[in-house]
Amino acid sequence: MTFEKKKSSHLIAILQALFVTFLWSTSWVLIKIGLNANLPSLTFAGLRYTLAFLCLLPLVIFNQKHIQSIKNLTKQNWLELFLLGVLFYAITQGAQFLSLSFLPATTLTLLLNLTTITVAFYSIFSKHEKTSIIQWGGILLSIIGILFYFLPLSSTQSNQTLGLIAGIVGLLANAVSSIYGRHINSKSKINPLVVTCISMGFGGLLLLATGIITQGFGKLNINQWMIVAWLALVNTAFAFTLWNKTLQTLTAVESSIINGTMLPQIAILAWLFLNETLSEKEIFGISLVLIGTLIVQLWRYIPTNKNKTPSK
User: Residue ranges per domain, the chain?
Assistant: First the structure.
């Protein structure tokens, strides 16, 4: 491949990745619209991921390589994929949908953006990764940003408190599933599509069953079914497939930066379509969190002196 072709394919991958983050950002607006139309939050989430699982399933079962990979799964592999499905879909996504029924989209996005910081704390205390002074600065910056956004505390209604609790549960579950998913991918070497499809099937079906039992199915009109179908087919199944394709071209740093653009994207979309306004103080807080998390996330990819061969 010539230099010009490489440059062109790299630019296409960047644009595709940005498009995926835009699709994922629009999910928050569509979810809020569905929730405002009185769709039961857990049932809504369960429908999205169960349908997305059904969309991904043909890509797995009609691929002989993936079928052979599934046949080779051990009982331990199946248990790990089930636990990943429970963590990342049933708990994380269920908590996010529940939280969105009480909180503004931007507030929840800000909380979930702290996943990187939470994972960094895990790496620090488990001694899996040495944290530099620069990364500590990023963590401190993110904490200051959170304080700027939420303080001073106003008298919070009980439903908003429930939303914050659900959001924190979603944050912690997201961090744990991120660590656990990384462990599965590095240890088992199962194809990412197979991992996603199976874990999504377990988690989505469990979430749907929980939602129907606790909240009922709800009455969906044609517009609400279109929202569910779009979220499942386009924003989940298609977006995941396209994102995986971009990872074959983009570096980890580039993917991290592009993924980090979701916070401002969601804030802008929520302002345009959900009438969620932000004060100057809140915008400043969000900016600090965004910069802080990017520092923590990207600094690990910057080579340090210890990795260099000493001169003789």
Answer: 9-302
